[in-house]
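Z., the sequence and structure:
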Amino acid sequence: MRVCNRMRLFTIYRKTFADLSNPKILLAYLVPFLGFTAFLALGIAPTQDGETVGSTLAQQETWLHETFILMSVFLGVAIPLLALCAVFCAITLATECERGSLRILLSKPVKRWEVLLGTFFAIVSFATLVGLVNLLVTAIMLVEFADINSAAIQGSVFSLLPANLVFAMFGASVVTATGLALAVFTKDRLQTTLGALVIPALYFLFVPVRIFGQDMYENFHLYLFDVSYHFGHVFVVIYRAINGTVPSETKEGLVVFTGVYSPLEDSNPASASFEAVEHVPMELSVLLLTLFTIAAIMAALYRFQRMDV
């Protein structure tokens, strides 16, 4: 019985994974992603005559480490990837609910929970692969535009890949769970997409709010709703679990787009020090996002088992 369940679950997984591999969908995502990533990488990299990120390999590794983190938590495994997961939820389960094709699928010897979980795992795993491509493309652009020795990749990009991929998987799980719950409750592609897009939208919107409205941000406790801040906590916890202590170059890369760290005022610019901005304990952010994801999946399962198709 368990073998049959696993086979059916894998069949749903494989079907969904194949649906997500549509070249039109991937092209619609990658073209703007590549353009914006190239634009940001060119803006960050020293392109003026005489400018350089450092003459030694250690200096280049440090710069690439900081910049790669900066772009990863904003582009590589963050906002675009989260938005893509929202779209994936809409074109899979929400589309089948809206068009009525889900009735045909459920008429076969397959259980509803297998359909939902198979779709969930397929979206999360596919998004993680897309995240890996995003990270590698980002690294290549930074190395090429900044004219960095390729040997610097090993001590910077490769050391950060495991934490980034786990972070991508976590973020994809949060948005996918939300999107699938919306899909079974609304049975509408547009509502599913817009509802799930709230998460990456808040991730983006709170960055300028935190930077330019610091007093308002703290006085009104807006950090409680700051998605980028909570996801930044998740990244730090994952990084600590995989790599141990968080070095200064990692902390510096997290300052702008997550607000998890801030530079100490009396620190030496040549060797800046950073302190954690713990409006909320890091572990609490991870726990709340995890519980939110589990609750969304459970709500989706409950509704999916009882809804009419």
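The longest strand covers residues 261-263. The longest helix spans residues 112-145.

Let me know what you think.
H.
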